[in-house]
Amino acid sequence: MRISLDEAAARLKNGEVVAIPTETVYGLAADATNDAALQQIFTIKQRPADHPLIVHIGDISQVIDWAAEFPELAVNLAKAFWPGALTLVLPAKDHVSRVVRGGESTIALRVPDHPVTQALLKASGLSVAAPSANLFTQLSPTSADHVEAGLGNAIPVLDGGACRVGIESTIVSVSEDEAGAHWQLLRPGMISEVEITRVAGQPQYASEIHVEDTLASIPVPKVPGQHALHYSPRTPLRLFKDKAALLSECKVLMQEKITCAALFVGAAEALQYTSSELPRMELPDLPAQVAEQLYGALHALDDLKVDCLLVEMPPNTPEWTAVRDRLSRAGHH
Ligand code: TXA
Ligand code: MG
């Protein structure tokens, strides 16, 4: 059900849940100070209560409403990347709802870079907690249609068009001790670790996010809720290091009458072996464009209701880290 900006603001003020656009993915939003409203997010998403939510604020001046500390290192990151696809995890003020922080002592904050989201925060006068607007562990939505397909038509959606970034924000935690402020990457995103390092210096701990070259294993992550079953289409998904490996497995599966669809990164038309029986999508060979189109492509392939999705992994180089992270999780069945 599509609603206007004014109606979305009114519903949020009334303690209701509304799906909203952001530049990364659509969020399922509620007033971040209203525990009953926040509970509905967990219920609708079927999300465990110990998975904290990100609070979306209008501008940097509102950080001190939520965070007990705002070290200079974090101020510098906020100034460099907000509004934008960076979430900062900071020590929370005592009054901050335990529901929104999932029992953690910290709070996750982000200033979204989307004109409709910004207008909504202004019109409502609220800060809104919003996880991605999908069922727990399923693919994130990057359009209003995705939200309705995943959560049903009864969910009120503020349509802000297709998401420009396309995958979830980079999450960085910042803490301070006698030795000074430290940061750690908790979730990779299109704002890269290199860009963060340029502003904040070297991280205290190496990122725990390594997408294994074997594609076999990913380590247990540090972010609550970032476990291996995230971002999955309903169709089982398998990852391949290149087109040739994908297609040779595809041949085997087709002989066994297992139906497949493929997602290639970089043009595949030159490959003669792409059988006409194989439904497929091709994404351009550019990280930002792949990120923007990734969930849309996976939603579309999922809708084909084949037995198995075969996906070509982009190369194991830094500019592909975030896309490889999401694909690894989608493929982890
Ligand atoms: O781009 C995004 O970040 C989108 C849009 C809607 O803003 N939101 C999003 O929310 O991806 P969600 O809930 O799907 O993912 C938020 C992640 C979760 O893995 C959660 O565990 C982590 O942020 N998180 C939230 N608060 C945290 C905290 N206090 N400490 C550590 N991790 C936290
Ligand atoms: Mg999510």
UniProtKB/TrEMBL annotation:
<dbReference type="InterPro" id="IPR006070">
    <property type="entry name" value="Sua5-like_dom"/>
</dbReference>
<dbReference type="InterPro" id="IPR038385">
    <property type="entry name" value="Sua5/YwlC_C"/>
</dbReference>
<keyword id="KW-0548">Nucleotidyltransferase</keyword>
<dbReference type="GO" id="GO:0003725">
    <property type="term" value="F:double-stranded RNA binding"/>
</dbReference>
<keyword id="KW-0547">Nucleotide-binding</keyword>
<dbReference type="GO" id="GO:0005524">
    <property type="term" value="F:ATP binding"/>
</dbReference>
<dbReference type="InterPro" id="IPR010923">
    <property type="entry name" value="T(6)A37_SUA5"/>
</dbReference>
<feature type="domain" description="YrdC-like">
    <location>
        <begin position="2"/>
        <end position="191"/>
    </location>
</feature>
<keyword id="KW-0819">tRNA processing</keyword>
<dbReference type="InterPro" id="IPR005145">
    <property type="entry name" value="Sua5_C"/>
</dbReference>
<dbReference type="InterPro" id="IPR050156">
    <property type="entry name" value="TC-AMP_synthase_SUA5"/>
</dbReference>
<keyword id="KW-0808">Transferase</keyword>
<dbReference type="Pfam" id="PF03481">
    <property type="entry name" value="Sua5_C"/>
</dbReference>
<comment type="similarity">
    <text>Belongs to the SUA5 family.</text>
</comment>
<dbReference type="GO" id="GO:0000049">
    <property type="term" value="F:tRNA binding"/>
</dbReference>
<dbReference type="GO" id="GO:0006450">
    <property type="term" value="P:regulation of translational fidelity"/>
</dbReference>
<dbReference type="InterPro" id="IPR017945">
    <property type="entry name" value="DHBP_synth_RibB-like_a/b_dom"/>
</dbReference>
<dbReference type="GO" id="GO:0008033">
    <property type="term" value="P:tRNA processing"/>
</dbReference>
<protein>
    <recommendedName>
        <fullName>Threonylcarbamoyl-AMP synthase</fullName>
        <ecNumber>2.7.7.87</ecNumber>
    </recommendedName>
</protein>
<dbReference type="Pfam" id="PF01300">
    <property type="entry name" value="Sua5_yciO_yrdC"/>
</dbReference>
<keyword id="KW-0963">Cytoplasm</keyword>
<dbReference type="GO" id="GO:0061710">
    <property type="term" value="F:L-threonylcarbamoyladenylate synthase"/>
</dbReference>
<keyword id="KW-0067">ATP-binding</keyword>
<dbReference type="GO" id="GO:0005737">
    <property type="term" value="C:cytoplasm"/>
</dbReference>
